[in-house]
Every structure is written in structure tokens, then in C-alpha cells.
Design brief:
mainly beta; Immunoglobulin-like; 3 domains
Length: 759
């Protein structure tokens, strides 16, 4: 049930995973000799925390939802990022986290009442007080000026131009080598992941810069550097930086263009170069927006669990815990090495809500509603619920009769147009899955169900040309998925017992009720099915509104990339290597236009995430996301040798924002682009930037376009390499058909879109 209490507790005279823990005597649920209580799901059948199971043992529920953050008297959620000591699998670690919690507290926005616009206010304070400049290749950087004095280089004190920074600042690593690809790990900001709000600033002003909290200059660039006269709250602005010791005031106006979709969103930092480090160490939290789905019969009274899945890299991987007696400070942060974090061959730890393998307890017949967020920074997992061989899940069975199907009712904070049920579910970084299971006759007294995760990237034998594991080029079979899960990692235990009280809901909702609560998939009068059919029929890349190829360079084990694409790129271009004086935006998206995107991946799989506007995913034969009907998403894995068609509308709000790979180490390396939604009716520059547009004489851009056409045109890596190997011409090593003018082309061809084409 929605407001059920979940206690942090321990076992009662039982053994879980080899740890024998003692607690009050079984039946003494209050620890004082009393066994009386009022029952109810989640509170213990007789009012305490110790539940008697069918085998006679008595256990306590150690699972708990993350605490909800209360707004202050002014209706403001206050988040403070600071060094925080946490216990991870028995080790003391020092991390960057919100409000002393790992993960962060849950924000809850009530359902909309009437026509009022819900304004979600968040004040973010950065209590990391000093700069921490580090190279993504590993190690801290020491920076000095020409006089040998400590300095901060330009570009690391503000968004674009380092106010108070030094142009003559030189930074070297511990070996005396010049630091490359360097970022300040103590700079932060805040992203409202899944929100449809203004990307720059909230309209209407009203923001007061005080107590170290800055606002935005209304109508001006985010990086004006002057906060004295700022009057606007930041929107979902991820291009503004919050420096050490500073703060910022956000306001997310959810219903400015109609009632915002309800569901599970989340929040986390989004500073290029520091996103993975901060999010991986716990700076992330769930954000629940209430709405029609919460009132659907079969959902409203279900037992609601919020599950924030984290994969901190502390399992024999190089992040050393705090020493005995060592305090947690900025100088002793244990999550502070990007090179360790980005290694895909190092094991990670599966945790939910900051706990390792917690126990859940529920009554027979109960419908459980699980809101699952993959807040992991890199890895992908298969997950499933399997019947345990005993009450502690020392083993489990993956045979079909011992699998608990999950009925998915929402993805990425958006209610599905109808439910989808499967035995296993797949989650990439940034995914949210909301599902139901249980009900009368399904969860029975004495049952034990085991939540199991199988890491996807570290399948034995799957490796990239660099020797590090990557997403497999071929989708696994059902049998291979079962094998992975049979050998997977236990994440949580669910015990079913009559001692847990009476079920609050015993029936699942109907598809008709879910459909009534779901956002429409009809866009501008045309059904999603018809739009997807039209998108699939487009073959020429030049006829596609937006093409995005996410890739870790073009390369093979034996041959270098013939197009010299930057590593970690979109369409052969790296985010930080792009000249912003020439390309301030990587592409323009005309306001309110409905657009067809085709997204592809090369060398590894990449979850495609775009801010502000969700997209309709056109169904495909994809075991990773097998939902067979169009549905709304904001994060979707595009696997190696796969392409996906998406349909979106650049709805309502102008401003600049980003899309990127949500493997956060990939994003930090530069697999990201800046886009601008602009109104051509009022902005004469709207349309000046596009995925097929290159500045005059920019041959690197022409080569990148030729490479992108190769990548989006073929169906396999082999076809891509064949295409790349065939090019070479007037523009250099890449682009046999590339051209700068008609003179570069042969008889019967002309230069169009930088490519020699017939006619």
C-alpha cells in the first residue's frame, strides 16, 4: 500500500547468506516481550518486525524504500552534495552523496489538482568546497601558473570561459605528464531525468539569489557569470555549472503545456566529465510524480516498493575503503578514479537502496508494485524473480514453472498503452521499469522468491578489439538468458507468510484501465503504428530527419579507423572536441515538429537518452526490449549491429539541451551532442545547424558525414567496415564519394550533401 511503513531491521534467529544474526525472540515483534499489534501488510501480522515463516523460522524485513524528502515551509526540496561516509557490503567508503544518504532521498510530487501548474522547487547546495581536477585517464592533476603558484585553468570555473581561471595554468599528473581530458570532479549541477519541462529557465522570474544559491539571467546565456541581478530559476539546465561551495535554485514547471506524465523519474548530476563519478558514488535519487496510474484499481492498493538499483565499483576493483579511524572528507574520497570506474572488466556490486541482499516480507495473495530504477552508471543486467530452494535463497530454480512473470505497466515514467508480461526483464543504465506481480493464488504462504541479476557486459568470451568485454553482437537465446540468471547474483529475498497480515490488493488491473491512464500514442492525428511504418520505409539517410550513430570509434583488431573518427563519438564527432565557435549547436530541432530519428550503435551497445521530450519506440525483433507495440521512452539501448526508428515531437519549449549515451563513462568521454529547439517563426538562425550540415571548407565534418552514412546504411559491422574500406578520395583518407563541389565529382554526378551522387 502506498504509505506502508518499511523498517530497517535484521534477522530473527535465522541465517541469511552465511551471516548469522541475532534479534529479539521470534514472536516478540516489538523487542519488549509483547506480541500484540494491529497487522497489515508490511507491519507484521502482530504489529512488530519479526515474521514467522512456514518453516517455523522467524525473520525481519530489512528492505526499506529510500526515505522521502519533505519540502520545507516554502515548498522547497533542499539537496546538499557533500562528502558522506557510507557502508557498502561491510566496508566504510567516502562518497559524494545527497543529504548524507546513499542513494539520495526520494522526491514525491502529488497528482495535479485542477488546472494549477505544479512547480517543483529544488535548492541545490554544493558542499564540496575545493576544486578536484583529475584526468579521465587516471590520477589527480596539479596546476601551477608561470610563477609556480597554484591556479585553476580556464574552462573549469564556469560553463564556457573560466571566470577567475588562468589561461597560463599548466596541469600535470603524478608522473609529471600533461593532464589531458581533465575535469573538476567537485563541480556539479542537477538533471531532472524524465521530465518534460523547460530546458533553460523557468518562466516568470521570481528567483532571489541568496545564501550562496544563484539564479539565472532570464533570456540570457546560462554562463553570464553574474548572479547579482538574476531573477529566473533554472529549469532542467545541465549546461550550467555549480562550483564548489556554491549553489543553484531550480524550478521544474511540470504542467506548463498540459498535465505532465506520471511515473518514476529520477535526478542526478549532469556535468560533462564528472557525471559518472558523482552518480556512481550515490548522488542519485528517485522522483515519483503521482497521477492517474496511481488511482487505477489493482494498482492503487498494491504494496509499493521503490527499488534504486546501484552498481558501485567496490568488488575487488581498486576503490579502497577508508582505513580504520580515517574520517570521510574531501581529501579521503574513495570513489575518485575515473580509470577504475570506466573499466568494464572490473566486477561491480549489485545493491538496491544502498543495501546488499535485503529481505522483503509480504502476505499471501498480495499484489506487489515494484518501481525499479537502474541508477547504475555503466552496466546492463537481466533481472528476474525465481522460486528459492529455501527461505534464504541459498539456491533458486529458473525452470519455467518457477519463474514469477512481471507485468510491466510503465517504462521510463510513462504508462504503457497496455501491459506487457515477461519472465525476465532487461535494464540498461537510466532505465525505469514499473511492474506488478502476485495476487490471489499466486503468492502463497511458504513461498520464497529470489530477485536475481545477471551482469550483461561481462559475459565470458565476449570482448572488443581492445580486449575489454562489450555487448554481444548477437542476442542471447532464452536458454542462454536462463543460464546467465541461474549463475547470477542474488539481489533480494521475498518471503511470503500469513504472519505478514492481510493483503491490501489481490487482483491485477485490466488493460482497459491502464490504457485510460496512459498518454496517447497518436501524434498530430496519426497513430504510432502508421508513423512507425512510414519511418521503416525510409532508406536514404538524407531523407531521415535526424540520424545519430553512437560509437566507440570505428576500428577493428587489425585496421585503424579510415575516417579518423574521434573515440567516443556521435556521428564521428566528439562533444568536447567540437569547435563551439563554429558549431554552437550540433543540430537544430524546429519547435513542435514531429521528427523521425534513426539511431544506430557501433562497437558496443549504447542506451540513447534525450532530455526534455520522450520518444515513441517503434517495435523491433529485440530480445533486450521485446515490447511488441510502440510505446513512449526516454532511454533505450541500441545494441551493436542494430538500428531503431524513433518518433518524437519537439514540443512546446525552446532552448538548448543534450542527448547522449547513458553509459555515463561514455557520456563523460564525449558521446554527447548539444541540440537546440528553436522557433523558425521568430528566430532567423533556426535551422542553421543540422546533422548533415558542415561549415564551409570543414573537410573533417565532410568525412564524419561520409562515415555516418556508411554506419547508418549498413546492417552489420562487416558491412560498415566494407563501406569504410572502399572510401578515399579528394577529401583525404575518408570519402571516395565525398566532395566539396561538383568539380570533385565524375561525369554524370553532382555534389549534394558533401557526397557525389548520380544526376
Amino acid at each position: 500500500m502506498r504509505n506502508a511503513r518499511f523498517r530497517v531491521a535484521h534477522l530473527c534467529g535465522a541465517t541469511l547468506l552465511g551471516l548469522s544474526l541475532l534479534s529479539p525472540a521470534c514472536g516478540d515483534k516489538d523487542g519488549d516481550g509483547s506480541t500484540t499489534g494491529d497487522g497489515g501488510a508490511g507491519d507484521g501480522g502482530t504489529g512488530g518486525d519479526c515474521f514467522e515463516l512456514a518453516d517455523g523460522s522467524c525473520v525481519e524485513e530489512t528492505f526499506h524504500n529510500p526515505p522521502e524528502l519533505d519540502a520545507d515551509d516554502e515548498g522547497v526540496f533542499r539537496l546538499t552534495l557533500a562528502p558522506t561516509e557510507v557502508e557498502i557490503d561491510g566496508q566504510r567508503h567516502c562518497v559524494r552523496a545527497y543529504n548524507g544518504l546513499f542513494p539520495g532521498p526520494t522526491l514525491v510530487t502529488p497528482a495535479r489538482e485542477g488546472s494549477a501548474v505544479r512547480q517543483v522547487r529544488v535548492d541545490l547546495k554544493n558542499d564540496l568546497l575545493g576544486h578536484d581536477l583529475r584526468s579521465l585517464s587516471g590520477g589527480a592533476c596539479t596546476c601551477t601558473d608561470a610563477h609556480g603558484m597554484a591556479c585553476t585553468p580556464s574552462g573549469h570555473d564556469a560553463c564556457d570561459e573560466g571566470h577567475d581561471g588562468h589561461d597560463d595554468c599548466t596541469c600535470v599528473d603524478e608522473d609529471g605528464e600533461t593532464c589531458e581530458h581533465m575535469f573538476d570532479f567537485n563541480v556539479t549541477n542537477l538533471h531532472a531525468h524524465g521530465s518534460h519541462v523547460r530546458p533553460d529557465y523557468a518562466r516568470g522570474g521570481g528567483c532571489v539569489a541568496e545564501d550562496g544559491l544563484s539564479c539565472r539571467e532570464c533570456g540570457e546565456d546560462a554562463c553570464d557569470g553574474d548572479t547579482t541581478d538574476d531573477t529566473c530559476f533554472l529549469g532542467d539546465d545541465v549546461l550550467t555549472q555549480v562550483q564548489p561551495g556554491a549553489g543553484a535554485r531550480y524550478r521544474w514547471d511540470l504542467d506548463e503545456d498540459g498535465t505532465h506524465h506520471d511515473g518514476l523519474n529520477w535526478y542526478h548530476p549532469h556535468i560533462h566529465g564528472t557525471t559518472a563519478i558523482q552518480t556512481a558514488s550515490g548522488a542519485a535519487g528517485a522522483w515519483i510524480i503521482r497521477g492517474p496510474l496511481d488511482e487505477v484499481e489493482g494498482v492503487a492498493q498494491a504494496r509499493e516498493r521503490v527499488i534504486v538499483f546501484h552498481t558501485p565499483s567496490v568488488a575487488e576493483n581498486g576503490f579502497e575503503p577508508l582505513a580504520d579511524g580515517e574520517e570521510c572528507t574531501e581529501d579521503t574520497l574513495t570513489f575518485n578514479d575515473f580509470d577504475v570506474l570506466a573499466s568494464t572488466i572490473s566486477p561491480q556490486l549489485n545493491m538496491i537502496n544502498g543495501l546488499r541482499r535485503p529481505r522483503m516480507v509480504t502476505p499471501p495473495g498480495q499484489v506487489e508494485r515494484w518501481r525499479i530504477l537502474n541508477a547504475g552508471y555503466l552496466d546492463e543486467v537481466w533481472m528476474g524473480l525465481f522460486r528459492g530452494t529455501d527461505a534464504d535463497c541459498s539456491g533458486w530454480s529458473v525452470t519455467p514453472g518457477d519463474v514469477m512473470p512481471l507485468t510491466q505497466i510503465a517504462r521510463d515514467g510513462l504508462t504503457l498503452p497496455r501491459s506487457y508480461t515477461d519472465d525476465y526483464w532487461f535494464m540498461s543504465s537510466g532505465y525505469r521499469v514499473e511492474g506488478l506481480f502476485g495476487g490471489e493464488g499466486v503468492l502463497q504462504h511458504g513461498d520464497t522468491w529470489c530477485l536475481v541479476a545477471a551482469r550483461f557486459l561481462q559475459s565470458e568470451g565476449e570482448s572488443s578489439p581492445t580486449g575489454e568485454p562489450i555487448s554481444p553482437g548477437e542476442a542471447p537465446t532464452v536458454e542462454e538468458i536462463q543460464e546467465m540468471l541461474e549463475l547470477g547474483d542474488l539481489v533480494a529475498v521475498l518471503n511470503v507468510t500469513e504472519d505478514a497480515g492481510v493483503a491490501t490488493e489481490t487482483s491485477l488491473p485490466t488493460d482497459e484501465a491502464l490504457a485510460a491512464a496512459a498518454p496517447s500514442t497518436v501524434v498530430e492525428g496519426i497513430s504510432a503504428e502508421d508513423r512507425c511504418a512510414a519511418a521503416a520505409a525510409v532508406e536514404d539517410p538524407a531523407d531521415i530527419d535526424q540520424v545519430a550513430v553512437l560509437q566507440v570509434g570505428f576500428f577493428t583488431a587489425d585496421e585503424p579507423d579510415p575516417c579518423d573518427c574521434a573515440n567516443y563519438n556521435v556521428n564521428c564527432k566528439n562533444f568536447e572536441e567540437t569547435d563551439r565557435s563554429v558549431y554552437p549547436y550540433d543540430r537544430d530541432l524546429p519547435l513542435d515538429e514531429v521528427e523521425h530519428w534513426r539511431v544506430a550503435a557501433s562497437v558496443d551497445g549504447h542506451p540513447f537518452h534525450i532530455h526534455i521530450n520522450p520518444y515513441l519506440v517503434c517495435p523491433q525483433d529485440n530480445v533486450f526490449d521485446p515490447i511488441p507495440f510502440p510505446h513512449w521512452r526516454d532511454t533505450y539501448l541500441v545494441n551493436l549491429d542494430r538500428k531503431v526508428d524513433l518518433v518524437t515531437q519537439n514540443k512546446s519549449y525552446t532552448g538548448s539541451y543534450v542527448f547522449h549515451c547513458h553509459k555515463l563513462t561514455h557520456e563523460d568521454h564525449g558521446m554527447m551532442q548539444v541540440v537546440r529547439t528553436c522557433d523558425p517563426a521568430v528566430d532567423p538562425t533556426c535551422g542553421d545547424y543540422g546533422w548533415r550540415q558542415c561549415a564551409a571548407e570543414d573537410l573533417d565534418c565532410a568525412q564524419a558525414l561520409a562515415a555516418t552514412d556508411c554506419a547508418i546504411g549498413g546492417d552489420t559491422t562487416e558491412e560498415l567496415l566494407t563501406c569504410l574500406a572502399a572510401i578515399g578520395g579528394p577529401l583525404g583518407v575518408c570519402g571516395a564519394n565525398s566532395c566539396g563541389s561538383d568539380e570533385d565529382c565524375g561525369p554524370g554526378t553532382s555534389c549534394r550533401d558533401w557526397v557525389c551522387q548520380p544526376g
